[in-house]
Amino acid sequence: MGNTVLMRGETVTAFTQELFQKAGMSEPDAKYHAECLVNTNYWGIDSHGVIRVPAYFKRMLNGAINTNPQIKVVRGEGCLEVLDVDAAAGFIGGRAGMERAMDHAAVSGIAACGVINSNHFGAGALYARMAAERGMIGIAMTNVKPLIVAPGASVPVTGNNPIAFGIPTYGEFPFVLDMSLSVVAGGKLTLAIKKKEKIPMDWATDKNGRPTDDPQAAFDGYLLPMGGHKGLGLSYVVDILSGLITGGVFSKDMKSMYANPKDPSLTGHFFIAMDISKIISKEQMKERMAQFKDQLKATPMWQEGAQMLLPGEIEYRKEQERRQNGLPIPVTTYEELAELKKEYDIQAPLTIIQE
After folding, report:
1. Among 4, 95, 98, 176, fewest CB within 10 Å belongs to which?
2. Which fold has domain 70-181+224-276?
3. Confidence class of residue 123 from pLDDT cuts 50, 70 and 90?
4. What pTM, to 2 d.p., does this model score?
5. For the chain, what is the mean pLDDT?
6. Which residues, in sequence order, are CB contacts of 189 under 8 Å at separation 6+?
7. Which long-range contacts does 64-72 make (Cβ < 8 Å, 24+ apart)?
8. 272: enclosing H helix or E strand
């Protein structure tokens, strides 16, 4: 057996749904949460996919994640509101926030919704895509406990606070740009640890601020900002929108899901939805986005065989491939799931299609 096993996405979804229901989550919420994780794997964002299942499950069991939250509006109204999601799973709180923003945008053209008292919400693309699928432009962001060290600083000053954009194209795939503001997301360190692989030296530092290729030392240390001061500044903006103006927590007041496994993370999110149908028809948008894509594709490339790709295209191609061939799951994750299956008497199978 190598570092990974291949599994069907449907198999992993059914297993994860049943597991989360065991923790007290309703069937619809458990199904949605499981589908989010598997979709993330389909897109090739393995660091935010199925490898997180055991950690989320344990946090549900010990109450860090509230499996039956009472979500309510606590500030604002109409096109600018704040939801307190009652320590919900970030996926459930994130869905509520983006749906709220979209519902108001359908009336006013543009709306924003902040979310407080939440947990880790996975890949920002999940929520940006929700808007694109509804014919809207979506922007999703979340704050994270400080992990990024600034030049000259001996401790981290801000999180790798991700921001994602989703734009409908009405073509094969939506335009989706999803990026954390560190050189890489912390989940990639987790994945490298599980796969027992080294990392590039410019990804992160150890706890003393020294560059390292050891993913465990990096995980125990700090991340480096993308683009130097540019990524650093954008990270501050995401924290201000997601936690400061909403009345939630920001910067050092958040809690790590790993260092504080029994406590809600107190994470904040911020969602913006724009109903572009009020200024451009679906037919015009499709035509103009096709023109935009064609212009990019026509760019001359100096390297033979290279081509320009639209944001979201790599994920689209990866999804086509993985739906056909299966999802590569780290062996260590598979073994964790197998243990949970046995311990909690999960009936859904964990069938491997190839080792």
Report:
1. 4
2. Ribosomal Protein S8; Chain: A, domain 1 (3.30.1370)
3. very high
4. 0.92
5. 94
6. 199, 203, 204, 215, 218, 219
7. 64/119, 64/257, 64/260, 64/261, 64/262, 64/263, 64/264, 64/265, 65/89, 65/119, 65/264, 66/264, 67/20, 67/23, 67/24, 67/25, 67/26, 67/29, 68/24, 68/25, 68/26, 69/93, 71/96
8. strand 267-274
